[in-house]
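Input chain follows. Return structure tokens only.
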Amino acid sequence: RYARQRAASQGLPLVAVQHHHAHIAACMAEYNLNETVIGVSFDGTGLGDDNCIWGGEFLFCDTVSYRRYSHLEYVPIPGGDKAVEEPWRTGTSYLLHAFGDESVAMSLFKDDRIKKGIAAMQEMISNHINSPLSSSAGRLFDAVAAITGLCTHASYHAEAPMKLESIIDHTCTDHYVISVGAPVGIKQMIASIAEDVKKKTPVSLISARFHNTIISLIFAMAVKMRDESGIRTIILSGGVFQNKYILDGTNDLLQKNNFSVYIPSEI
């Protein structure tokens, strides 16, 4: 709104670009790419063209248009931006999404304040009160950090995913099962993570399996998109790719399978 007002008041042209398309288009501009590419745009928050919150997007893009091929399945985020500061809210929502009721969330979270809040989160979600639907990869990282007990309350930006990355067991090559479709199904993975927490599996192993799953997902989806379109040029962009483990693992796998991979460096 601010940009439109400023442009109108000064008689300037205004070109609106969807947030996740912009992540890809900016990288295309940086490398002077003038073609259709596969864009993997993973971040925390950006308004989608369906008025839901996007952030786990697989796109076909050129510099002026995009087509959304797939995305992480929508999960409600109770409290909206408040959930960024309190990842337990997101963790609760993902557990409700995976299991259908609050019993697993109540058993996994040990903090009495959180236990008292779980019913309120379920009520908010059930009544569609301040619980926007989100396909955000960033919120998925928040949820896993909260479910494992690593970070239920964040005191600085991206604390939950940063802690999750910092604890990875680099000797682990396992990954969880995830449904590579349109949308990408995450219920089975969340259920497996919850089961691992119940079994007291080391958080370092859970984190490694989760990160490996994201890398496997991106690769599998990239192969599907390449097989359908013949496009081999792929861009990895958005805040999630500041995660070095995800970026390096995904980049290496794609390069070894004959993709031309571009990653923002100047921007």
